[in-house]
Write a structure and sequence with these properties.
By secondary structure, the protein is an alpha/beta fold. The protein is 23% helix and 25% strand. The protein folds into 3 domains: 173 residues, FAD/NAD(P)-binding domain (3-Layer(bba) Sandwich); 142 residues, FAD/NAD(P)-binding domain; 87 residues, no CATH class. It contains 7 helices and 24 strands. It is globular and about 65 Å long.
């Protein structure tokens, strides 16, 4: 019997467990998934929790609820992968042998990477919203905060869900206006990028929204340290931004297990073929989602699109067939802009977000790069889709794993200009 092993039971790992169990004969292929956690979090909900839009119970469920019958689940911490032996070592020294390995260990925040960030101000006047604990602590802070200098900040790219910091700034603007205290909040958006986003068309549209909402953008800010005594962030060029409340997106890194295994890049992301999702480590090792170094957005939609292509490629690998070089970096993201509106962006490695309609050409009902209440309803409905369809690898109608150009006002980019 062939052993397929999945590391990580987050979005990508769970989808793959469901996809493969449906496609592989259980008498010929055993499937095992390893994760030390017991709770699965709906990470897009971290954005809404600080503003009391979601309650904690709405964004977490037991992991076991989404692991299909016929897949063995091991709750344990992973020490390392030993590719030469086709073995994964657990922290308790247990050896798990595999014939095919799928790395889906995700990404996590690393506030310790910036001097002063993880000091005495952490979760007192410095907060993240990329963890359940951080988002919940920030909710408690915002409930009693009376105003001042609010800085929404990105340390460095890549990060999970690149639009989330912008969404936080937009929702903060709306939140404080509804509390009739926006005039007491000096709201700044600080980014290492040269604009609001990584793609020119979207940067133009999102930059206009920042200006419209009187959110000052401070770009090209490469943070060196947090000066806790002076309550300011400092970049390597000497720029300083004071804060009363710092909402930061710390450096995102792959799992420490990747570093212990000696198979990752400087940020512990796994070198992976961007079209096939086979790793550069060994031919029987594949990677998916936030764990990879592919130049696609680290977002749930990307993991979903990758999973369909990766499943086909694993079947091709089993059958000794050439792998499909098909994944095009497709990402599809709602961008919450406050006041019950959102816009939608759809892009890939080579095609930046453009205006148009989705999913039906000329019909929609969703509009690309345009604010609407319909887009907002789509964003809010996605939580149901996530729990009931996406994780269970059920087909989402009219949404394809590769990007379709139908219905879009196309503005082609050269592949080397793509920067997601």
């Amino acid at each position: 019997m062939q052993n397929l092993l999945i590391l990580g039971a987050g979005t990508a790992g769970t989808i793959m467990a469901n996809q493969l169990r449906k496609r592989l004969d259980a008498d010929e292929y055993s499937l095992t998934i390893i994760d030390q956690q017991t709770t699965h979090y709906y990470q897009p909900g971290y954005l809404f929790l600080p503003f009391d839009i979601y309650k904690p119970k709405q964004i977490k469920k037991p992991i076991e609820k989404f692991i299909p019958a016929g897949v063995q689940r091991i709750q344990a911490a992973i020490d390392r992968i030993v590719p030469d032996e086709d073995v994964v070592l657990l922290e308790d020294k247990t050896r798990i042998r595999y014939d095919i390995l799928i790395i889906a260990t995700g990404a996590k925040i690393a506030p310790q990477e910036v001097e002063g960030m993880l000091g005495e101000g952490w979760r007192k006047d410095i907060f993240d919203f990329y963890t359940f604990e951080g988002s919940k602590a920030l909710r408690d802070k915002l409930r009693e905060w009376n105003g001042g200098k609010l800085v929404v900040h990105i340390c460095e790219m890549p990060i999970k869900c690149p639009v989330a910091p912008l969404e936080f700034a937009f929702l903060a603007d709306s939140f404080f206006r509804h509390k009739q205290m926006r005039d007491r909040v000096d709201l700044k958006f600080v980014t290492p990028l040269s604009g609001a986003f990584t793609k020119p068309k979207a940067t133009e549209k999102l930059g206009y929204l920042l200006e419209q909402k009187e959110i000052e953008i401070i770009s090209d800010f490469a943070i060196e340290k947090v000066d806790l005594a002076a309550r300011k962030i400092v970049d390597y060029g000497g720029k300083e931004v004071p804060y009363d409340l710092l909402v930061t997106v710390p450096t995102n890194m792959g799992d420490e297990m990747i570093a212990r295994s000696g198979i990752g890049d400087d940020l512990n992301f796994v070198p992976t073929n961007r079209a096939t999702l086979q790793t550069e480590i060994k031919e029987n090792i594949f990677a998916i989602g936030d764990a990879t170094n592919v130049p696609a957005s680290k977002a749930g939609s990307v993991a979903h699109f990758e999973s369909e292509i990766l499943t086909d490629n694993i079947l091709r690998y089993i059958n000794g067939e050439p792998l499909k070089e098909e994944f095009d970096g497709h990402a599809n993201c709602f961008v919450e802009t406050g006041d019950g509106k959102a816009l939608l962006i759809d892009f890939n490695y080579t095609q930046e977000p453009v205006e148009g309609t989705f999913p039906f050409p000329g019909v929609g009902p969703l509009r690309l790069l345009q604010e609407s209440r319909v887009n907002h309803f789509g964003k809010m409905a996605f939580r149901w889709v996530y729990w009931n369809m996406l994780l269970k690898a059920r087909h989402i109608p009219f949404v394809t794993p590769t990007m379709t150009l139908a219905g879009k006002d196309i503005d082609e980019l050269e592949p080397e200009d793509a920067n997601v």
